[in-house]
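Work through this:
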Amino acid sequence: MQVSIETTSGLERRMTVGVPASEVDTAVNTKVKETARRVRIDGFRPGKVPVSVVKQRFGAGIRAEVLEEVVRNHYFKAITEEKVMPAGNPNIEFTKDVAGEDVEFIATFEVFPEIELAGFDGFEFEKSVAEITDADVETMLENLQKQRANYKEVKRKSKEGDRVKIDFAGKVDGELFEGGSAEGQSVTLGSGQMIPGFESGIEGMKAGETKTIDVTFPEDYGNKELAGKAAQFDITVHEVAEAELPEMNEEFFAAFGADVKDVDAFRVEVRSNMEREAKNALQGKLKNDVIDKLLEVNTLDVPKALVDDEIGRLKQQAMQQFGGGADMDPNTLPNELFQDQAERRTKVGLIMNEIVNKAEIKADDALVKAYIEEQASVYQDPAQVIEYYNNNAEMLNQVKAVVVENAAIDHILAESKVTDVKVGYEDAIKSNAAQG
């Protein structure tokens, strides 16, 4: 076997492999004889079909099968001998393929980039710790009550907290715009579900009243054509209903998965959930800050094959998230929607893998066990969830990957300058939302 490799551009390699004719022809002849023993052809007894007949009828197909196996074997042998690490499958092109002569093929592929990691000793991070106050807990209890509220129609002016049923029609520069009108829309005043100024503009209106309000779309509004523009909305109120908050009893507690008997016990559970939520949010923010820093100081090319694979995974996730059925093809989604995210994920994966290898980080069994128990603790039957993880190899591998990544982040932080900062519950939760 003769092998030569050249760099065509960046991470792309072009490997030429030559295979002696004798090796290919011997494999073809062996395959022909095997076929002759088992093939059935009219006019010949089983096992007595002449080799010449088999070659005439099936020779081209047999040679193609043999070449496929020869290419596969010699490709893997070549990359092993040449010590190259392809990223993705190769593109194979035959340059010599004539019976009786040496075979030659070219494998074009990308390789993993060589990464020279920047040191961590100059990194600086703020590690936020959430303080959950009694007032935070009481606010959460009120919000939980509002989530389970019943609404009763009233004949007074609307106020914050009321739910109104309205028709509205929005205009920009005097013209109706797409998506700016609705009939029978329910809006809870003060909920923030509409753009700033919309809900407050309805406060004080009664059922049967019509009013025009002036608002301005936020600069970061999703529709770029409307972002930052002034608008007028013609609003008609059909109904005003006030919230009737439910009593905090065992039925109420059970609705939120809490097996408790009184408000004090429920308050303890709510605080515990808030602490867990804030902790996870702040850990996520710190992890994101570390990753941003790694990307900032480590520049690298990424193999297109790996990015394309990541785009495929993101498409699948998008289909699942938005309820795409099995008959929907993820490939109908344009690659451009996922390109930036896929490139970032691929870069992060390559950098983290290098850190894990150099620091010899492993999935510690105790950490894996602790992670699974923490995830299971939010369910009514934690033991059942733990058993599910432990008996599902795919889920267990995902947990191990998370544990290894978290250990890598801890390794970086241990070599960085980290400053503790106290934040409130709301700021903690907002930090998580800001990560997208």
User: Anything to note?
Assistant: The radius of gyration is 33 Å. The chain has three domains: 2-110, 150-244, 253-434. The chain is about 45% helix and 20% strand.
